[in-house]
């Protein structure tokens, strides 16, 4: 078995199994061992860790995870990769592959059964077509998490770290910053993947809070308000919230809440901090 994480080993495996990349699954496999080592060290994987890997592909990063962690669960949607994974991971007895769509899997049950409900580390070179639903799913289902270290599109990584008043600031920034502290670790050029993606990538680490940093009476309402505020980015908050069919908030309600918060009636959502969204939400 050649080592993966380089073009020769990857091509050998792809040919052996006559594997055809499927664009619809966002299949871009890592072929650079330095990047793989840097991901493992960014995630600070140790022998005590239980790791969930999303989308193992041919098992390149999975091998690194198996070497460094206590136990690895790798969730892969593409059935055609299963015989390959069986082969490339045959040397390890601390890994299980689950053939499932990560968006449909009951991850909480796995964490309960396999890690006694204690927080886990997630490590992944994500399929970019579902980056946001995967991250939001982990947070909204309240999966016990220590950290999420993931390869994403560079722009998406920047959006997660953005602060109020910047063009990238939005619902994703607020959700990520409510549940975690995001830190872009390094960028990754397209040449480190096979096939090359059309975009540059970055590895971002989200260090998850055990408790959110701000208190809010109704988390769901706050996120509905946040989503409505950024749905119509160029509109004032008064108009955006009034237009949101699911909120049932009048213009007068918003104006009076903003007045209490000493904010102008013309303010847009992009100017508000997480604390201000929590305060606003608590008023409704
Ligand atoms: N980890 C491998 C690597 O770094 O070389 C592969 C990463 S590739 C960018 C994304 C992987 O996620 C592919 O193997 C793809 O089949 C898988 N995938 C795509 N959608 C998925 C889903 N909904 N659930 C689980 N895996 C998925």
How would you explain this protein's 3D organization?
This protein has helices at residues 7-16, 33-42, 60-68, 82-88, 107-115, 131-140, 154-161, 171-179, 219-231, 237-243, 251-260, 274-282, and strands spanning 29-30, 50-54, 71-76, 95-99, 120-125, 145-153, 180-188, 193-194, 201-208. With 284 residues, the chain is an alpha/beta fold. The protein folds into two domains: 7-208, Rossmann fold; 219-283, rRNA adenine dimethylase, C-terminal domain (Helicase, Ruva Protein, domain 3, Orthogonal Bundle), CATH 1.10.8. The strands form two sheets. A seven-stranded mixed β-sheet has the order 4-3-2-5-6-9-7, sandwiched between helices. The chain has a two-stranded antiparallel sheet with strand order 1-8. Helix 6 crosses helix 8 (171-179). It starts with 6 loop residues before the first helix and ends with a helix. The protein binds S-adenosylmethionine. Residues 25-30, 54-57, 60-61, 75-78, 101-103, 125, 127, 130 line the site of S-adenosylmethionine.
């Amino acid at each position: 078995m050649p080592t993966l994480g380089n073009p020769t080993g990857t091509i050998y495996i792809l040919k052996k199994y006559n594997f055809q990349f499927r664009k619809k699954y966002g299949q871009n496999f890592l072929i650079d061992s330095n990047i793989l080592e840097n991901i493992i060290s960014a995630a600070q994987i140790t022998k005590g860790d239980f790791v969930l890997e999303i989308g193992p592909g041919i098992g390149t990063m999975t091998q690194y995870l198996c070497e460094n962690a206590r136990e690895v669960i790798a969730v892969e949607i593409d059935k055609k990769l299963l015989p390959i994974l069986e082969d490339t991971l045959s040397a390890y007895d601390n890994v299980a592959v689950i053939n499932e769509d990560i968006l449909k899997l009951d991850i909480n049950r796995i964490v309960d059964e396999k890690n006694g409900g204690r927080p886990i580390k997630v490590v992944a070179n994500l399929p970019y077509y579902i980056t946001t639903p995967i991250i939001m799913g982990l947070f909204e289902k309240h999966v016990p998490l220590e950290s999420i270290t993931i390869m994403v599109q560079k722009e998406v990584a920047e959006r997660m770290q953005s602060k109020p008043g910047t063009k990238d600031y939005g619902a994703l920034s607020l959700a990520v910053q409510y549940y975690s502290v995001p830190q872009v670790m390094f960028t990754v050029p397209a040449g480190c993947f096979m096939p090359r993606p059309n975009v540059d990538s970055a590895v971002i680490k989200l260090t998850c809070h055990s408790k959110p940093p701000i208190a809010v009476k109704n988390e769901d309402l706050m996120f509905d308000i946040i989503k409505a505020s950024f749905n119509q980015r160029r509109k004032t908050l008064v108009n955006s919230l009034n237009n949101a069919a699911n909120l049932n908030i009048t213009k007068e309600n918003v104006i009076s809440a903003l007045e209490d918060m000493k904010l102008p009636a013309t303010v847009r959502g992009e100017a508000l901090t997480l604390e201000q969204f929590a305060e606003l939400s608590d008023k409704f």
